[in-house]
């Protein structure tokens, strides 16, 4: 019991100050998705706490992903007018983004010769963590591996996003937001807000719809994995 309390308090004690730090200085290396896990890993190593023990003691934190996923309905309702106005673009962007994400992951896994469980965990890397961890096992993957791939995908998306968009014809803020939301999920929405509130909203919607579509297609993705 004492170790479980320590693990939970340590996680919260690292996350909330990190969140404040990132709000004050929004730099990539201060992002809580990157810095908090790194600091937590260092703490576990220094305290000689096995990862399996930490995961067992903090398993209820993963339960919170369920309500977080349901909470995605809020921005959909709040921006329903924007959805009605741009439904065709949202639909096309979601289908194209999910197709490209799953297809490229499958090809990457095949080219690298990744073992089955690792390859399957990679397939849903381009959606936000609540969705990805929720369906990881349904596509034959492992939740913790999928979570790692999700973070790496988000970081890669915001690091290379501006370079890729600079090579394309001039796009509106909404198009930029859609690109970040579909390719880099939560981190992409943060980056998209640099182009204005409409871009951030569009990124959020693409992130949510991509997660929903990938969840619905989980049985088909599992068939692809086999």
UniProtKB/TrEMBL annotation:
The keyword Transmembrane applies. It is found in: Membrane. Its main location: membrane. The chain crosses the membrane at residues 28-48, 60-77, 89-109, 147-168, 201-221. It comes from Pigmentiphaga soli. It is a multi-pass membrane protein. It holds the Pfam family LrgB. InterPro entries: CidB/LrgB. Keywords: Membrane, Transmembrane, Transmembrane helix. This is LrgB family protein.
């Amino acid at each position: 019991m004492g170790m479980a309390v320590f693990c939970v308090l340590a996680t919260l004690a690292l996350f909330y100050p990190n969140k404040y730090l990132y709000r004050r200085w929004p730099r990539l290396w201060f992002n809580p998705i990157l810095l908090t896990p790194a600091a937590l890993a260092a703490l576990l190593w220094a305290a000689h706490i096995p990862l399996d023990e930490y995961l067992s003691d903090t398993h209820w934190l993963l339960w919170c992903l369920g309500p977080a996923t349901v909470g995605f309905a809020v921005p959909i309702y709040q921006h329903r007018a924007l959805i009605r106005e741009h439904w065709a673009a949202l639909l096309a962007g979601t289908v194209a983004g999910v197709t490209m994400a799953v297809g490229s992951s499958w090809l990457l896994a095949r080219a690298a010769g990744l073992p089955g469980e690792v390859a399957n965990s990679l397939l849903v890397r381009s959606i936000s963590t609540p969705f990805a961890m929720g369906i990881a096992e349904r596509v034959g993957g492992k939740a913790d591996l999928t979570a790692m791939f999700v973070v790496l995908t988000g970081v890669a998306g915001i690091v290379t996003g501006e370079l890729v968009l600079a090579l394309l014809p001039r796009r509106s803020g909404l198009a930029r937001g859609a690109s970040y939301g579909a390719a880099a999920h939560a981190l992409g929405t943060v980056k998209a807000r640099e182009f204005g509130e409409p871009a951030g909203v569009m990124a959020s919607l693409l992130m949510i719809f991509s997660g929903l579509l990938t969840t619905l297609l989980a049985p088909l993705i599992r068939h692809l994995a086999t």
